Amino acid sequence: MQLQLQTWQEVEAYLQTSRGIILPIGSTEQHGPSGLIGTDAICAEVIAQGVGEAADALVAPTIAVGMAQHHLGFAGSMTLRPSTLIAVLKDMVDSLVRHGFERFYFINGHGGNIATVTAAFSEIYTARSLETASNAAPIKCRLKNWWQSQEVHDIAKELYGDAEGSHATPSEVAVTQFAYPDAIKSAVLDPPVAPRGDFADAADYRCKFPDGRIGSNPALATPEAGRRLCEAAVAAIAKDYRNWVAV
Amino acid sequence: MQLQLQTWQEVEAYLQTSRGIILPIGSTEQHGPSGLIGTDAICAEVIAQGVGEAADALVAPTIAVGMAQHHLGFAGSMTLRPSTLIAVLKDMVDSLVRHGFERFYFINGHGGNIATVTAAFSEIYTARSLETASNAAPIKCRLKNWWQSQEVHDIAKELYGDAEGSHATPSEVAVTQFAYPDAIKSAVLDPPVAPRGDFADAADYRCKFPDGRIGSNPALATPEAGRRLCEAAVAAIAKDYRNWVAV
Amino acid sequence: MQLQLQTWQEVEAYLQTSRGIILPIGSTEQHGPSGLIGTDAICAEVIAQGVGEAADALVAPTIAVGMAQHHLGFAGSMTLRPSTLIAVLKDMVDSLVRHGFERFYFINGHGGNIATVTAAFSEIYTARSLETASNAAPIKCRLKNWWQSQEVHDIAKELYGDAEGSHATPSEVAVTQFAYPDAIKSAVLDPPVAPRGDFADAADYRCKFPDGRIGSNPALATPEAGRRLCEAAVAAIAKDYRNWVAV
Amino acid sequence: MQLQLQTWQEVEAYLQTSRGIILPIGSTEQHGPSGLIGTDAICAEVIAQGVGEAADALVAPTIAVGMAQHHLGFAGSMTLRPSTLIAVLKDMVDSLVRHGFERFYFINGHGGNIATVTAAFSEIYTARSLETASNAAPIKCRLKNWWQSQEVHDIAKELYGDAEGSHATPSEVAVTQFAYPDAIKSAVLDPPVAPRGDFADAADYRCKFPDGRIGSNPALATPEAGRRLCEAAVAAIAKDYRNWVAV
Amino acid sequence: MQLQLQTWQEVEAYLQTSRGIILPIGSTEQHGPSGLIGTDAICAEVIAQGVGEAADALVAPTIAVGMAQHHLGFAGSMTLRPSTLIAVLKDMVDSLVRHGFERFYFINGHGGNIATVTAAFSEIYTARSLETASNAAPIKCRLKNWWQSQEVHDIAKELYGDAEGSHATPSEVAVTQFAYPDAIKSAVLDPPVAPRGDFADAADYRCKFPDGRIGSNPALATPEAGRRLCEAAVAAIAKDYRNWVAV
Amino acid sequence: MQLQLQTWQEVEAYLQTSRGIILPIGSTEQHGPSGLIGTDAICAEVIAQGVGEAADALVAPTIAVGMAQHHLGFAGSMTLRPSTLIAVLKDMVDSLVRHGFERFYFINGHGGNIATVTAAFSEIYTARSLETASNAAPIKCRLKNWWQSQEVHDIAKELYGDAEGSHATPSEVAVTQFAYPDAIKSAVLDPPVAPRGDFADAADYRCKFPDGRIGSNPALATPEAGRRLCEAAVAAIAKDYRNWVAV
């Protein structure tokens, strides 16, 4: 159930049965020579919609631009400052709290968002924690990375082993191939498996990872693998959501 | 050309031919008993993608949550504070400037965004205007509402006359019906044409417009009208974009 | 009634009879070779004081520095960033709400303020709209440009036709000549009627409008015309204020 | 020389001879039963204009609303948050630096502004101090309270002794009587000399100083004393300004 | 080498040999009935000073108040909002960059800081990543939790097994007992091993963990264990620091 | 009583007897060729702990980094922007208010903090003053510079006369020598007594005061003088605290 495709009266009815909502968050950033700039947003959106259907949960519109400062050395990458993204998430949650939502389940497509989204949760909680005696209903936020389940991990391990890497991974590229088969790109990847390492700002990143990939060989991606990964992620996350929202 | 479906190398190539980019911005807010919460984001996105194709222009991901504080009395509506939205737009433009983009053409689906987006442009320009001697390339931003052309105005007038109203209009509902035919909703609209007037905060809005509509009769919307409106909007805006980006 | 010339006990008495207040807002920016830098603040102030007398309304001190980033290429121009101006307006309104004021009528002298002031209204409203059940008295803000009435428009049309232009207009210069007859400046205006067009940042503005004017011939201004314009504006706005504050 | 009454070309010419500018800053707050709400802004403005004439210096428009949170218990008082006022002062100085101004001399009418204005100077300097090797021209800011000279102090002492007090003083009321003889108010002051003490927030202030005055007997004020105080202040400050701007 | 005990000339000399600095960051928050409120700051400080000596590195003053909103239900706990802590860390790093420091190694004593500190690094990097061609020296930040090494983990496992828990752990209490033997507290812990689980805001935390501990039995702590843990942490982190700063 | 060495239950017990807390605030900045960078933080901390013992008052952890933008020309100096420091102080006070603290007594070691800390108090109060009818307990903040008592002033005068100066004073250096006898530094001071004057940003400061001192001869400092100054300061401030907190 996409929030965008409901009327306000349908949302009002939904709130009679559930106080939970799913919020996909991705990023708009380079994913190597063959990966799409929207990879992280696409993965989060596709899997969130699957989870929404599987768990009868409302899905908010995707936050497509996340925290991706380290990718700014590559054309097309966009970032919000962490302080901006914190403000965005606070406003979004504050808006939904107004209507009675109490459980905010973020499905995330980008490792670079984790720290800032987690900090945003604390910013949101702080406003409540500073009040001595609030009669506001308690709220809870949860961040779930789409690749963060045993089932997805096992598939990626089976299919790609060490060539999964950590950026522009064959797994995430596969999910986008499954979602947008008309936008599959090919490119010469040299070396086939990209170097590994850590990084600081955009210049440092580009210097160490000249084509944008980290430790991965996305040439291994296939739409079929994307389908498997998607289904596994949806099943695992839908289960996690149902358990969490029920508490 | 959706930015999300490009690789960074394709964006690099695009920048050899154009310094312009289209950014759709909508809202997530109630649109009356039969209108979708995502109406404004859907209209902006659909028309921006049409313009992107017609004008060979890159289209950034849609900003789905805008400034909609006055709709918070209706379930599902979300807002960014104006100060937050200004920060978001500044970060997005700053990111793209980093790569060499110089013309930022926002296609807008929500009247409530106009003031804040325009203020954001000034915030972006101010950083440059305060520098005495900058060697930065000049940048320009433009806001175009999708309904803001003679052609679209004429169709709406012909089809709906005064029942077009100003919120949850049959025109915008028609565009969403064309875009999402499976999500067409029906509802008893009483009175058929909603009251008119101005408003302040969310409580004031809900008090004056109990079902969320202003001056409109969205029951008149049809997918076919949506198609006509879309095509007219795309043609008019693509022309405007091409002229503007060429200067 | 200027707020600045009242005692707090007089304001307390005023609040027994009215919850409205008028807030003039102008700008400090170049107005061409013969226009005063304070033109917009002077126009807003003079007309606001007239309205205050005509409508028995309290008039707050003039906000003299507005959003004028595009004029920074000309000596003496000052700007607040939009985000700063939003904070200023929020603090001012919040202060007055503390005392029981509920209607905030801004008389504006500068087109460049419109978007930011309107965004500030939304910022102010958002704080209230995000609260589920507030027992705060409802507040309303209204922005009225001093030139925004049929009567004023007709006089400007009659006197100046197309030479009214849009910046450093003979109308606004006339009002300042009426208000400050000792500060009337003359300058060679070449061409007599300035070019028209749009603009982005300060460098862009200065490049397109080398002497600061847009589309205007302020040499046509006279103090007598200023008097007529002032009187027409005061009458029209006082009527609008009285109607608005009564609702 | 009021900035507001100059053209941009006159300012450009002024900058050939001086890099200094005077900025009056006051407050909009209760001044007891007989003092004007605009007292601090009026004093700062009148004296700044005198100094401007005496020292051939440009005078910016008055900042009429300052930091006056402690007066919010009395109708008509307005405040900017310290963080807002810091942003305002930074934007104003940044704007003027753009044109080549380098010396910013604030003439202050309100003790409650001192800390925040001084903090704002540090905020402005910090942006420069954090740069390792800046080629920006050095700038300097100075805060001068209008009552802060031996000459003014002596007159106040002679005329009022201990009844000068520290808020709604006969000195400042006298200056406003001199400036606005038509707005002289009278009120029963009971006790004639108000209590003294410190204060925290608005509730605390109102509790300790029920009519708004601190330690003063403004009934002693006369327009003639206002004239003397004004002249003494103008002379002393003009001298200080000339010395300071010359370094 | 504590920065606080150096002269500026000694720091200047240090910069000839190293561009790295260690910054301890802790928290001020309840640590159960027998743990000190300063536990996290004490651990970070003691170990950072040890690392400073072992690695000949400068150690900045300890950031004693961190992000601890979830502990605000217990007296004495203090928090910075995430957005405030981000601003603090940015200012501190910006200050040190001014002098030529390039490697910022944060030794952390509080799990609740991790997300916000990591987001702060991104905020710092973003300012650089948004510049197209910066000639600023590259900087790098690293966060190291004091308990984050195999050696420390092994000792805690050996000594406490599952009773280590995750808040008010015997390990961290032991370190404070070693550091402040005069401040060892005892308390009845009931149950001996505290419950486990996750948490949201302060009310939620207090409800689930009534005495403040999570999963731990701090009664097992001894000063001697604290010594062992300290030494192990210092050795492991000093090695990590030396390797990292050398790159 | 250091807050850091208490348990939360001890703080809860303390609040039964007192609503006051002492917060030391210093700075991290150069203090001339022989003064420690931590001088201001050390002085504030040592004296605050003495006052805490003398007055049975809780002492919060020291804020070690203050507002020191003017010292950034000397290696090792760190600053918070005034706006950042205001946010920090607000968060700290807000946290403690949550537990029932009502009196916040800041013992300050750095003249450069005074304006910003005072502005922060106003920022904290403003949040309360803007509320019409708050039922929050009243809070009060007080700033006391450690050198701000007749007793301390007399000792400094007796020992150093005019060579006390205003930065890197023999008094403050003496206090650090008493506190950290192992960190006493010596340096050739040329001239023995440093020049005097005012300053703006860091470049201006360094230009006027090449070795960092202002008007002082810190070579006169001795640990024994530090002991006397400390004891005098503790006695005077403890008395002031007890009086203030009792009201």
Note down, in words, how this protein is organized:
The structure is a homohexamer of 247-residue chains. With 247 residues, chain A is an alpha/beta fold. The first copy, chain A, is 44% helix and 8% strand. Chain A is built from eight helices and four strands, in the order H-E-H-E-H-E-H-E-H-H-H-H. Chains in contact: A-B, A-C, A-E, A-F, B-C, B-D, B-E, C-D, C-F, D-E, D-F, E-F. At the A-B interface, helix 1 and helix 3 of A face helix 1 and helix 3 of B.
Key traits:
247 residues, alpha/beta, 4-stranded parallel sheet, globular
What is the topological layout?
6 copies of one chain form a homohexamer.
Chain A: H1 8-14, E1 20-25, H2 39-54, E2 58-59, H3 82-99, E3 103-108, H4 114-129, E4 140-145, H5 150-160, H6 170-179, H7 202-208, H8 223-246
Parallel strand pairs in A: 1-2, 1-3, 3-4
Helix pairs in contact in A: 2-6, 2-8, 3-4, 5-8, 6-8
